[in-house]
Amino acid sequence: MRFGDGYSQRMAAGLNADLKTYRVTLSVTREEARHLEAFLAEHGGWKAFLWKPPYAYRQIKVTCAGWSARVGMLRVEFSAEFKQVVN
Q1: What residue segments make up the domains of the chain, in order of their start?
Q2: Burial degree of 26 (CB within 10 A; 0-12, 13-18, 19+)
Q3: Which of 61, 35, 36 lies closest to 47, judged by CA?
Q4: pLDDT in tens, 29-57
Q5: What is the pLDDT of residue 13?
Q6: Domain of life, per the record (predicted)?
Q7: Short-list 60, 63, 62, 22, CA closest to 46
Q8: What is the pLDDT of residue 11?
Q9: How many CA atoms lie within 13 A of 15 on its CB side?
Q10: pLDDT for the residue 16
Q11: Distance in angstroms (rounded) separating the CA atoms of residues 17 and 5
Q12: When you count CB atoms within 10 A of the terminal residue's CB, does the N or C end of the chain come out lower?
């Protein structure tokens, strides 16, 4: 919220204001890359799936709207952004 004198106030927006976004890098074999890309494409950026952040004890629901892949000699490196959702 911004006031006329330039003062601004920040506040949580709703019940789920603390949802996280993760920038993820996955290094997989070429065979695994086919399955991973099919999985991400099947979910289409809107269908949530379960994922466990590396420092967490339990899985969370996330979506992935886009990713990129860099193909190496033996492995494929995927870069993606996972956004936490509640539904």
Answers
A1: 21-84
A2: middle
A3: 61
A4: 999 999 999 999 999 999 999 999 988 89
A5: 64
A6: Bacteria
A7: 63
A8: 57
A9: 3
A10: 74
A11: 27
A12: C
